[in-house]
């Protein structure tokens, strides 16, 4: 009987369907670990150890390493001080190719956002219902990380060997503008010809990410009661005026197109979010005079190409125009203090070859036209795109309620993502062995 050429997409899809239970079990195991980012510290260690064992059992060369013990970590230009990494390991693993092919790195973070109020059950007890898996980190981003591991396992078990190396890393401290876990990997010399970051994208492909700044904006004044004609200035009034400006300015920015090609027709406005207000003596049972300081914490996003100073000056100039007065003309000048590192936006060039390849794999796996656009969020992709020779794209599963109660990942999208990742590995890293045949 004449042998037929293998239909690899069908072989991969069949493998994924037969291993959906294992996919759910693997993700559930990772969710059961509390890996909430505590801003300065974290408890990722036990989950990282479990992932390390899983990758070793899979047959990958794996290692655990502490960022603080990595040579060049503190000297890296993207390093940001003020965090404790003494017992928070990264995981790195490689599936060696036979040589001569391009390498591909899947870089994910294991830490999660804080537990938001409103969960109806424990966020660390995964629940599957209506083809959705609920749990903290399911969507952002343990689901995408599991899809990468399963894609490697799929190709291994199908007997396919590639020429280029396939790498998987799981880093700590990405939430709250961390990025130092990703910095540590670059300081360690972990590199590839291309990077896929499995952040949640709803199977859209993001060749660019926004930037963002979290500032504490302070207004100062004088307090007391003007029984003798004293002049007082309530900084809460200045802060209120500034907040009204921010609301209007967000609307104004939404009417402007972003930079081409990835944000020229962006559907999502650049958010300016007031995250916290603080004024007055909160320890006093009553306050009968105005505060001397009022603090407004704000998260402001920007497009690639905008730096922190430029973003701050944009806000200061806009506030002057809004008020119709200058800062020397009885207009209180806001004071800006950085709360976390500035996250610059970043992008890859439109002709980066992995882009077209992933578009084709998305369309083959989903049967729908691939959406390619700029990410509506900031993340640690800038560490690759601005500080390394490894261009990074973002592609992850569908789901909902990231950073909110009831976070979930869609399991069908995870299955499709495994197909996409496996196909990308095959084509980017190039098969090195005879492929399995259908008889």
TrEMBL record:
<dbReference type="InterPro" id="IPR002933">
    <property type="entry name" value="Peptidase_M20"/>
</dbReference>
<keyword id="KW-0378">Hydrolase</keyword>
<dbReference type="InterPro" id="IPR050072">
    <property type="entry name" value="Peptidase_M20A"/>
</dbReference>
<keyword id="KW-0862">Zinc</keyword>
<dbReference type="InterPro" id="IPR001261">
    <property type="entry name" value="ArgE/DapE_CS"/>
</dbReference>
<dbReference type="Pfam" id="PF01546">
    <property type="entry name" value="Peptidase_M20"/>
</dbReference>
<protein>
    <submittedName>
        <fullName>M20 family metallopeptidase</fullName>
    </submittedName>
</protein>
